Amino acid sequence: MIKHYMEMNFGMIDLVLDAGHGGRDPGAIGPTGLQEKECNLYIAKKCEEILKKQGITVQQTRADDSYIGLSERAKIANDANSKYFISIHINSADIQTANGTEVYSLVKGGEGEKLAQRILSSMVNEINLSSRGVKFANFAVLRETNMPAILIETCFISNVNEERLLREDSFKDKVALSISKGFLDYIGISYKEDVSVTDDDSKLTPLIAPSQASKDQGKQWAKNNGGTELFISLADLYWSMYSAHGNINPTIAYAQAALETGYGKFGGSIDESFKNPTGIKSTSARDDSADSYVRFKSWKDGVSAHLDHLALYAGADGYPIENTTDPRHFAYLNGKVKYVEELSGNWSASQDYGLKLLKLINDIEGVTVVDKFEDSNIYEDSIIEEKSEEKETIKAVKDKLLTFSEEIDNLKTKYQEFSSVINDLDKMISYKDSENERLLKENGELMDKVKQYGEVIDDILNIINTRAR
């Protein structure tokens, strides 16, 4: 594999594969919720796996669930000076019975149309879906790319039956194989069954392996190359933590951190405050702005995420794992990259990324330690920092409880005041009731007297009337 990279022309690759949609853009969604972006990425990665075994150099526009703009996809292919471009999509329609496969190119009569015809024919033969033909459209990824380019609409995710097929990895594997065979047929290469790369594996540099360099060699190398004091101290984390994170070779991880951060000088969109030694992006990343990168709580968390991501790539025992600080710990990456050389086009779009990293690794392993290095306290600082954050959280909770307790005391005081007012009102009501009873009694007595007086007056009037006769 190293020999293959050394012999290839870094100025051109054979094919750029473009998994449509991604990140915040799910693409079309099937009747039972299957998202187009998931299927596109699976098929594109499977195509890459197949074609690489056939000796084809491949680069992806996206290797994970990230959002990339249409023009940026075309730019990736143009910057890579790719010979061909294939964008992979799943179709959708308002009519749920719509079905079949179609392939788009920009215009009639060009190499794009020829490539589209060859791949469509291969797909129809392999996956047994109806052909909707080669069509032409002014899509951005077809218009803005500098090489023969096509866009594949595999089948209809809006069709219940075809969505059911897309849920089967075996079907998506057939789709990838048919695309790969069609591409190979177009460029005049016969597809070889049961291609094995075992013979080349002995020449590769595995990510999981004992380190051939000591921690002090790493520090000496970093110092010789102008590394910052903080970056030199990161060696303590890498060499102390690697065994708990898939046994990733710490020399490889440390060299990669140097490559990504400029030996701790950073200088890109992020700085030292991010505690992110390899520029890991968040799952919602949209571009290369600072907001797209993860801010880790401590250097321990940042190094842990780096090691876990490499261990996932390498297919380390027990991976993928839960409770990792790696935000892009996607299960489909498990075992995809077992060697340093294969980080090209995966960790980085650059096709010479693996070679650059190999040179740094060799430099570390060959350095002579001349300075005396003491263990730094960066590991302890990370722990102290985490404990400090925990203490701050506990303090915040205590402060909230204290405030709540004070509010309860205030409520109690107000309740007592309110109770006193209620008691006064009860007394007033009781007094009023008592007065009402007294007045009613007096009124009854007065009514009796009025009745008596009325009877006396009636008697007097009767006597007067009798005498008057």
Automatic annotation (TrEMBL):
Keyword annotations of the record: Hydrolase
MurNAc-LAA domain mapped to chain residues: 74-184
Keyword Hydrolase annotated: yes
SUPFAM superfamilies attached to this UniProt entry: Zn-dependent exopeptidases
CC annotations in GO: outer membrane-bounded periplasmic space
A GO BP annotation: peptidoglycan catabolic process
Domain of life: Bacteria
Residue intervals passing through the bilayer: none
Record GO terms (molecular function): amidase activity; N-acetylmuramoyl-L-alanine amidase activity
CDD domains referenced in this protein's UniProt entry, alphabetically: MurNAc-LAA
Protein name: N-acetylmuramoyl-L-alanine amidase
Lineage, highest ranks first: Bacteria, Bacillati, Bacillota, Clostridia, Eubacteriales
